[in-house]
Amino acid sequence: MPSIAPPLQGQDSIRLNRFIEDNKERFVTGLSKMVAIPTVSADPPYPSVFTQMAEYAQNLFQTSGGTAKIVPTNGNPVVVGLFHTSPNNPTITVYNHLDVQPATESSWTSDPFTLRIDKDRYFGRGATDDKGPALTAFLAASFAAQEKIPLNIRFIWEMEEEVGSRNFESFVKTKKSDLKTDGIVVSDTIWISARQPVISTGLRGLLCVILRLKTGQEDRHSGLTGGVARNAIGELCDAVCRLHNPRTGEVLIPGFYKKAKPPTKKELADFEQCGFSVSRFKRDHKFHSMRSRDRLDLMRRIWAEPTFEMHGIVGGHMSAGVKTIVPQTAEAKISMRLVPDQDPNEIFHLLKKHLKSINTDITVKKNATLSPFKGVTSGPLMEMAEKAMQAGFGRMPVRIREGGSIGALPTLQKYLKVNGAPVPVTFLGLSLPEHGYHAPNENFDWRQAEGGIKMFVRFFEETALQKWQK
Amino acid sequence: MPSIAPPLQGQDSIRLNRFIEDNKERFVTGLSKMVAIPTVSADPPYPSVFTQMAEYAQNLFQTSGGTAKIVPTNGNPVVVGLFHTSPNNPTITVYNHLDVQPATESSWTSDPFTLRIDKDRYFGRGATDDKGPALTAFLAASFAAQEKIPLNIRFIWEMEEEVGSRNFESFVKTKKSDLKTDGIVVSDTIWISARQPVISTGLRGLLCVILRLKTGQEDRHSGLTGGVARNAIGELCDAVCRLHNPRTGEVLIPGFYKKAKPPTKKELADFEQCGFSVSRFKRDHKFHSMRSRDRLDLMRRIWAEPTFEMHGIVGGHMSAGVKTIVPQTAEAKISMRLVPDQDPNEIFHLLKKHLKSINTDITVKKNATLSPFKGVTSGPLMEMAEKAMQAGFGRMPVRIREGGSIGALPTLQKYLKVNGAPVPVTFLGLSLPEHGYHAPNENFDWRQAEGGIKMFVRFFEETALQKWQK
Fold first, then answer.
1. Are A340 and A202 in contact (CB under 8 A)?
2. B373 contacts in A (CB within 8 Å)?
3. pTM of the predicted model, to two decimals?
4. Closest CA to A438 of A364, A341, A335
5. Which parts of chain A sit beneath pLDDT 50?
6. Residues of B with CB below 8 A from A105's CB?
7. ipTM of this predicted complex?
């Protein structure tokens, strides 16, 4: 038997295809209901939105032969679902998140929280990040349970991923004895293109900060005071331009790059092989121009190098027209993506120190920290993931790093061990660049859901087999 | 007869005091009604707000023995009111504006468009800028008419002053034959302190611009694209920091200062004499610190030197929390105060040229231009204004420049001539630093209204006398 042949053959394969056909409507209805619950963790529209989401998720498991618990935290609850077979079978844990980014952009062409269906494409906030992939993995697991694949499948559905997973550590710490698992698979990553699946071998970390400056009590008239009044927005801009070069992206904080490990030769070789296209990337993201067009340089910049971004400046006059005041209060929203082995808390310390030398009146508040993540680049879990991708989409995935951050992963590895070592983690992402992660008109599509169900079923089979063999 | 003795003496003076006493309630009711019409020219809440204001103003004249016309323009109408005595009498024109600044600041302690009366202090947007002074001058004129002072008093009440008087020139050009006048008095300037009235000898001009940068179609995820995506807010900050130094205020546009005339020795001597207090200025404006604490340097900075201010940056994520996107569209709202003989259009050209050398993708839009204004520093009109101030408030005004801008003045002098020379202009302002021009909790007070009525009555008498003597 060739190593990449699908285990489900003949009748089995026909049953899977029929399951997918029979469950398409269920998928669309489910995604529609999940998108309609506006779980914006940064700015929830009403307090009970996360309870509502958790109850909907719990009900999904309970009506499909599984069980689910809603675990409260100091913030939003975590849903832990389970399709249990036997304590003697191995256990695989699937991680997704059900909170979403804000959807305040004016360029949404339809209501972000009402699923808009355009043939096999589904538009709505959270469609691809990460409700669509969560539902795909869930359907695959319910099929695996129905087929009695000898595996226990646990789901961890977090609802604070988009705000730095701030209560996830206390959840894992408290529940670690209930969360024992042989491996973790994360479904919250993005392909190179619709034709090129990937498996991530690392993630960037994150440090979010807010800089604040208050030079007076209230904004003042620029005719009366302009020339001598300090301008809070101007001084923040000045400081930010001394913390980084906004044109090149170079960070100017002394010591910032010291612990940033450059990618290995092997990783760079994998990057070279991965089928990344500069022009497709530019087109997918609708950029007019970019900081670099050199292919390898571009990949290094988005996957393996740290960044410094201004997300917004609040203060002064932000509505229509020009109001000639000298703003006295301003706030700059900033984040830095970090790479292994940069430590967010160390970087925060360096930032604070450098800022003090620039402008002593600016205060800095740490808003969120996520450690960078180094994943596996070889071993049985990687091979199983590769086989599953191949089975679902007919193509071998390439190994790249991911530029985003998933705060839950370093935490899971810190508390969950297999034979004393951190639990192995792999990635089975389903999102595509054109799905618009964190962007207006976010969407998911049936092709990814259909292939995704096949991929996850194959992954569950592989992991079940693997464990029998050990 | 001593030159500063008030002409209204004995019975006359008693009648004026009784008029003021009898009209206090009328003043408060009138101000309350005017503040309740939210004439925010930069962002009107509904289209008919200026018609409503114009009709209210017209009615004021018609019910007080005067007449008034509402003159339509391509923007907001101008109200021209008149108390007419005889074509043989001289004519004085009082300029005010009835539009107001936006009132979106969160620190308003009561609704900005509902007059809050706290003893003899009146809080509301436009109370001091410029509805309160307009109403004060109006009451004085209605008393002068009632007393049959041999003078024609015309009022020009504009409603686009806060947005650069963009249709005022076409109004004056079209109506110049109806607007013939022997002198103009502007009541829209601010004292040094509650104890020190001023007469302005010059005003700064203004150039408002909006810088825009669009580096892609939509904001993108900073994990997916950060490092290679251009950051529109960051690049705007960079450009702005190359156009000026936000800490010192120094403008870095080549040629910017070339035509800026430093104040004369006489002017500087007047500044020195004017009773300006650094600590009172700081306290009145509620500043924590300022760019300068040197008294003469501070006065030069706010009255006689040009500025560059950032009023706000729009783009990216401006609501609660941090959203890790790379903003692809951003807009910086900027204005420059200009001094004689800087020309706003020339400065705009220099700015555009320099910006092109900084970042070719940034576009710049001219939002408003106002020429700087050189007023009279001597002559009969200045003397009459000084006598009027003395009569109203018991103190001689000092001569300073004003840091603000009134776009209408250069226009009025361009089209209205007396014996071929530009019509003389003087200033009788009533606002105090603590009134909060353009700031939250803007207010006016009865002391200024009461003294203001006396001041204007005396000014009208002086101008009537002056003309009889010629």
1. yes
2. none
3. 0.83
4. A335
5. 1-6, 468-470
6. 218-219
7. 0.84
